[in-house]
Specification:
The chain is an alpha+beta fold and 572 residues long. The chain is 22% helix and 23% strand. The chain has helices at residues 29-34, 110-121, 154-158, 165-184, 212-217, 224-241, 265-268, 274-283, 301-309, 360-379, 382-396, and strands at 67-68, 72-81, 84-91, 96-104, 131-137, 140-146, 152-153, 197-199, 205-207, 243-244, 254-255, 418-419, 423-427, 451-452, 468-487, 494-501, 514-521, 525-545, 548-549, 560-561, 564-571.
């Protein structure tokens, strides 16, 4: 029969319980480690076998090589707990790997597990791990499900850090839509947590354990839609912050500080996308507090899907800028056409360029110019000599690099040229970053977008760190003369400093940089003029003081001392 279910079950609930450690035979230890995402966790209940507990049931005598229904050959035991076992198996009929959950038919939860598996199998939604069979046979109940070797748990993904905004957006969109579809068919999960959410190699998010996980645990709820919606909110919270939104640690994640309550994700970690932060708060049960805009809470997966649809779509990050390879001349252009090719791995001598005017033609030209100069001086034609010297200067300086202070030889002001920005990265001198994902918005030509700082309690001068800012990559060494900033907040006051640095990263300390200029403004623009132009590829725009401004819901900003840079332009 074509059915849907989970590849595994865990029992860590939303209050922060850690799942029980799977107890497997020593001979299958390697398999447990390799297939951790498929482990099934069941309560070890010590009481008598009541209606809600498994009781003491003798496990069936199963071993590697045992066949179920004449086709499912058990290969490796992943979990064995109190009468329940989970296996990696092979469907010999279709020649594919599968997973199998097995319970004795007289297990107190066997009926509920069998009914849940058969119900979820009817959903037919590929966003859920598929149940392939659900059978009672020879005093056993077993549920056969898909085996996804390329899928990775959300738990594993979060071990290395929070998700990027676009990945978190895709995760919550797909999970919420899948749960909305399940609830329309009367199915609830009730055990939705980071162990039950998988990302495949194609980037698709899938859910395991629909209905079955709760049946194995004996879980029910009077408001299943609210429970699953809160669970999706917790998943999003964890994806944004790498923290579990409850006081207890769970799923390898640290819980929130005790006695603080639920605080918004963008207050837990700098740089969190404000729209996603509010979405997580709207889905979580938090005594009516849904974030600064006080949107109505989402109590069903359908409401959560609608809220996601009303958000601006979050685009994937732009690919990193890669400099083009250096131009390589051909052998013919290098003047070695017809010569033997150099042997690979053998260092070749680099021919030194000839000294200026040392060729026969160069010597003749040098003597001719000297003779003309002597003749000009002898005849008193100083105008001719001056013209010749000026001509010589132009021939040696075709790029006009000898002019100074923006003036040419006629005394006219040389027009400044815009310098294109090739990349940027937030500079963090101390503490956490501000909003590093938004730095590209400061040079996208759109003043309606930008990068903002956090809101600080003390000001105008930044107290808790030396400053905040962005390093810009100009692509190559450029002589910067002016930096023009468009700012979002006016008032007393914004202090901007400009530095030349040698790296796009935060590895170079401020003390090792060259200060180019500074300015203080009370308006919404700042023009930093460089007194002594210095060539540099990397330029740091550094804020050391910011004005006070109230809450700005349009830009997801709380009241405090803060600033936002909407556009930066360099000229040279």
């Amino acid at each position: 029969m074509a059915e849907r279910s989970t590849a595994a079950v865990d029992v860590a609930d939303n209050s922060g319980d850690e799942p029980l450690t799977a107890q497997a035979d020593q001979s299958t230890a390697d398999g447990v480690a390799q297939n951790r995402e498929w482990d099934t966790d069941i309560d070890e209940e010590q009481g008598s076998g009541g209606t809600d507990g498994p009781g003491k049931v003798s496990p069936p005598e199963l071993h590697s090589g045992h066949k179920l229904a004449g086709r499912y050959r058990l290969e490796e035991c992943v979990t064995r707990l109190d009468g329940f076992s989970s296996w990696r198996a092979v469907d010999e009929k279709l020649r594919r790997a599968v997973g199998v959950h097995i319970l004795p038919a007289d297990h107190s939860r066997a009926r509920a597990v069998l009914a849940a598996a058969r119900s979820s199998a009817l959903l037919g939604d590929p966003r859920f791990v598929q149940v392939l069979d659900a059978v009672e046979e020879n005093d056993l109940v077993y549920v056969v499900h898909e085996w996804l070797p390329d899928a990775v748990e959300l738990t594993t993904l979060l071990a290395s850090g929070p998700l990027e905004p676009h990945d978190a957006y895709q995760m919550v969109s797909q999970i919420a839509s899948a749960m909305a579809a399940a609830h329309r068919e009367g199915l609830a999960h009730l055990r939705l947590n980071p162990n039950a959410v998988l990302r495949t190699s194609t980037g698709q998010w899938r859910i395991r354990g629909l209905a079955v996980n709760a049946a194995l645990r004996g879980i029910s709820s009077e408001s299943p839609q609210r429970a699953d919606t809160e669970a999706v909110g917790a998943l999003l919270y964890a994806a944004l912050t790498q923290r579990w939104p409850y006081e207890s640690d769970a799923y390898g994640l640290s819980g929130l500080p005790k006695d603080v309550g639920l605080i918004a994700p963008d207050q837990v970690r700098a740089g969190v996308h404000r729209g996603l932060s509010e979405l997580a708060m709207r889905a979580l049960v938090n005594d009516g507090a849904t974030a600064s805009r006080h949107e109505s809470p989402c109590t069903t997966p359908e409401e959560l899907v609608k809220a996601i649809g009303e958000m601006p779509r979050i685009r994937p990050p732009e690919p990193a800028f890669t400099a083009p390879p250096e131009y390589q001349r051909t052998t013919y252009q290098q003047g070695s056409y017809g010569r033997p090719a150099p042997h690979p791995g053998v260092a070749q001598p680099v021919p030194a360029p000839p000294a200026p005017l040392q060729s026969r033609t160069g010597k003749a030209l040098k003597w001719a110019v000297s003779a003309l100069l002597i003749a000009a001086l002898g005849l008193g034609s100083w105008q001719l000599a001056d013209a010749l010297m000026d001509h010589g200067d132009k021939s040696d300086d075709t790029n006009k690099t000898q002019t100074t202070d923006g003036n040419d030889k006629s005394g006219k002001t040389k027009p400044l040229k815009p310098i294109a920005v090739r990349g940027a990265q937030e500079y963090v001198a101390a503490g956490e970053a501000q909003h590093p994902a938004d730095v590209a918005k400061t040079y996208d030509g759109d003043t309606s977008t930008g990068w903002r700082t956090n809101s600080f309690k003390d000001g105008p001068k930044i107290v808790i760190k030396p400053g905040v800012g962005i390093v810009y990559d100009l692509g190559s060494d450029q002589k910067v003369t002016t930096a023009t900033l468009s700012l979002r907040y006016g008032g007393d006051h914004t202090a901007v400093e400009l530095y030349a640095t040698n790296s796009l990263t935060s590895s170079t300390p401020l003390s090792s940089m060259t200060k180019l200029g500074s300015v203080t403004t009370t308006g919404t623009s700042a023009n930093v003029t460089v007194a002594k132009p210095t060539k540099s590829r990397y330029v740091l725009v550094w804020l050391t003081a910011m004005p006070y401004s109230g809450a700005d819901s349009a830009n997801f900003s709380d009241a405090g001392y803060k600033q936002a840079i909407t556009e930066v332009k360099f000229t040279g």
